[in-house]
Design a protein that fits this description.
The protein is mostly helical. The protein has one domain: Ribonuclease iii, N-terminal Endonuclease Domain, Chain A, CATH 1.10.1520.10. It is 74% helix and 0% strand. It contains six helices and no strands. Helix 1 crosses helix 5 and helix 2 packs across helix 3. The chain is globular.
Amino acid sequence: MIDDYNIKALAYLGDAVFELCVRDYCVKHVNARIGEINKRAKAYSQADGQEKMYHYIYDALSEREKTILKKGRNISGKRKNEKRAHRFATGLEALFGYLFINGQTDRINEIFNICAAACGSLK
């Protein structure tokens, strides 16, 4: 079933899954108004933060998860001068899409908690 999905489609879906994880985490851990929560959440959602997470989680992944991560990183975007960070962010999003499609909610949470540790405290 997973092979029926294009890696770009997994990244597209994974972007939404990852954003939901970010918002859930921030609402639970940041004691502030929504505007402040949103501002702090950007550390997770921006490509530079996601590139950091990509490297931080790598050793905790299975071989299949690493393959998805790398495939997502290697898809080319439409921008000629696409930032390196954006490519790594796309890999991370593809992984979250893959896990979601496979119904691996616990694994999504497990990996996101590692990602949160990579960004440090938002409190």
